[in-house]
Fold:
Amino acid sequence: MATSSEQNQDRFQRRPAVEAMTGLSRSSIYSKMDPRSPQHDPEFPKPVRLGKRAVAWRESDILAWMNGRQSTAA
Structure:
């Protein structure tokens, strides 16, 4: 059975929440997702489509990416 903290991490977060969690701007988030961008980060979590014009990110994916960034920092 999942603990309450594990359940909270599997919530979908919309872009403004991802910006607040990561400290990245809207353009930086989309640059990290764009393979043609010099700022592309293949490790950055992919969004999940919620509808025709709505996407969100899994909170657990964002937190895992952030934890991975901390371990690779100099």
Remarks:
- The chain has one domain: 11-72.
- The chain has four helices and three strands.
- Residues 11-72 form one domain.
- Strands lie at 12-13, 48-49, 55-58.
